């Protein structure tokens, strides 16, 4: 089983990815760990590509994150299931703030060690506006057009719960 979990920041991609990995016994790859190094430094692109190639070699995986430059189309092609978190921006904002309050001063499991949880203006802008540009929405629309037969769209916490129940 190969599952790609994509969507807006703060929606709960990493949490669901971990649950799906445990359910199906798949390797869980949080793409934030590939992209970031300690101290919120962006990893060298060549090194990112090496790590991504290694992650894609697994027979089964759950990958959470968007990162269009990290084999995005290949992930969508290879995935048996694509889960798209299409939560409203205000819900993502509230959930990201809640996550910050929980992990403040710590690094969450889905992030590179040394990247303490933050909730600064740059991240707030990303959640509310910059991560929802016309280009980003077009990317998701294209995925739905090309891979709609294997895509599940989740728009709320209750959608997530119903999706998880539907898995048995």
Description:
The protein is an alpha/beta fold. It has a single domain (2-160), classed as P-loop containing nucleotide triphosphate hydrolases (Rossmann fold, 3-Layer(aba) Sandwich). It has eight helices and seven strands. It has helices at 13-24, 31-35, 45-56, 72-78, 89-103, 121-128, 134-147, 157-166; strands at residues 2-7, 27-30, 36-37, 41-42, 61-64, 81-85, 151-154. It has a five-stranded parallel β-sheet, with helices on both faces. A hairpin with a 3-residue loop joins strand 3 and strand 4. The longest helix has 15 residues, at 89-103. The relative contact order is 0.20.
SSE order and pairing:
Blueprint: E1 2-7, H1 13-24, E2 27-30, H2 31-35, E3 36-37, E4 41-42, H3 45-56, E5 61-64, H4 72-78, E6 81-85, H5 89-103, H6 121-128, H7 134-147, E7 151-154, H8 157-166
Parallel strand pairs: 1-5, 1-6, 2-5, 6-7
Antiparallel strand pairs: 3-4
């Amino acid at each position: 089983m190969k599952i790609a979990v994509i969507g807006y920041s703060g929606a709960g991609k990493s949490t669901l990815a971990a649950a799906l990995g445990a359910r199906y016994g798949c390797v869980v790859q949080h793409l934030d760990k590939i992209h970031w190094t300690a101290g919120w430094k962006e990893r060298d692109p060549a090194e990112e590509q090496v790590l991504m190639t290694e992650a894609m070699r697994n027979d089964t995986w759950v990958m959470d994150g968007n990162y269009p430059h990290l084999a995005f189309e290949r992930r969508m092609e290879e995935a048996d299931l694509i889960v798209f978190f299409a939560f409203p921006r205000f819900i993502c904002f509230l959930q990201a703030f809640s996550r910050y309050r929980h992990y403040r001063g710590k690094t969450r499991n889905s992030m590179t060690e040394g990247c303490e949880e933050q909730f600064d203006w740059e991240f707030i802008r990303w959640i509310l506006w910059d991560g929802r540009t016309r280009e980003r929405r077009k990317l998701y629309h294209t995925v739905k057009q090309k891979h709609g037969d294997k895509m599940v769209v989740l728009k709320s916490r209750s959608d997530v719960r119903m999706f998880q129940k539907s898995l048995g």
